[in-house]
Design goal:
Layout: H1 3-17, E1 19-21, H2 22-29, H3 33-45, E2 49-52, E3 55-58, H4 69-74, H5 77-88, E4 96-99, H6 103-110, E5 117-121, H7 124-131, E6 136-140, E7 144-146, E8 151-153, H8 155-162, E9 166-171, E10 175-177, E11 181-184, H9 190-199, E12 200-206, E13 218-221, E14 228-231, H10 236-244, E15 248-251
Parallel strand pairs: 4-5, 4-9, 5-6, 9-12, 12-14, 14-15
Antiparallel strand pairs: 1-3, 2-3, 7-8, 10-11, 11-13
Helix pairs in contact: 2-3, 5-6, 6-7, 8-9
């Protein structure tokens, strides 16, 4: 097995188990402890795992930890591409839209094909994507840059979105729970996201299925504040429960 293939399988194993130790991984992948330590060092340097005594923890298991942009981009990439393509198809020519920061909303922006569009965002990567499109009028919020996720945040950012009215907000999230609602790993982004929700006639949440049935640090909003959810897969029971709360659930297959 090639090193990159082994590291990918190790990462999948850790994310599934939440945490793992050196001995466990050495046995599971039939390689030496030295090799496992080297693999874990490289995964940790990329921000894909968090090193703890004797092993590592999945970054997905830290509910108040901002996941670095590089890690988000590598997680569930195929699902995010499908979600992005479906979500972009819901935008109409002439729309004014908000793109929340995140790897899934970035995929929405990559699929823009409308003839005329106004885009508002606080995400630097989305801004760079939109800057190359002649059919898009781009407006970027002010704020302080969070370098690990290429996101602008703070009072200037919140004020920017409080002063606008748009057709659609495409919102990302860190977790969805039927009782706790939508939640976010850090408090810093919550007020910005709330302003994005209030600014829109329609709120479309884009997220992959790994965020379902989870709670993280900060409550963002009740599920009923979301109009549509675009997701890669969801079981029928969970889908019905969301629909009872007024959310239209669309599966990007």
């Amino acid at each position: 097995m090639f090193q990159i293939e082994r590291q990918e399988k190790i990462l999948q194993y850790i994310n599934k188990k939440k945490k793992a130790n050196i001995n466990e991984l050495s046995t599971a992948f039939d390689v030496s402890k030295v090799t496992i330590r080297r693999d874990l060092d490289e995964l940790a340097e990329k921000g894909l795992v968090v090193k703890i005594h004797g092993g590592v923890m999945s970054i997905m298991n830290k509910f108040s930890y901002e996941i670095p942009s590089a890690s988000k981009l590598e997680a569930n990439m195929e699902a995010k591409r499908k979600i992005g393509a479906m979500a972009a198809g819901m935008i109409e020519d002439g729309d004014i839209v908000i793109f929340d920061s995140g790897s899934t909303t970035l995929e929405v922006s990559k699929n823009i094909k409308q003839q005329k569009l106004t885009v508002l965002t606080n995400d630097i990567k989305i801004s760079m994507e939109m800057a190359h499109k002649r059919n898009v009028k781009l407006m970027v919020s002010g704020g302080i840059l969070n370098e690990s996720v290429y996101t602008l945040a703070g009072d200037q950012t919140v004020d920017f979105f409080k002063k606008v009215h748009v057709n659609k907000t495409f919102l990302g999230c860190d977790a969805i729970d039927l009782n706790f609602g939508i939640s976010n790993r850090t408090m810093q982004e919550v007020e910005t996201k709330k302003a994005m929700i209030e600014a829109a006639e329609e709120v479309i949440m884009v997220t992959d299925s790994s965020k379902l049935n989870k709670k993280v640090f900060c409550h963002l909003c009740d599920i009923s504040e979301i109009d549509k959810l675009i997701i890669n897969e969801i079981d029928d029971t969970y889908k019905r429960e969301l629909e009872k709360k007024g959310v239209e659930v669309l599966v990007a297959e």
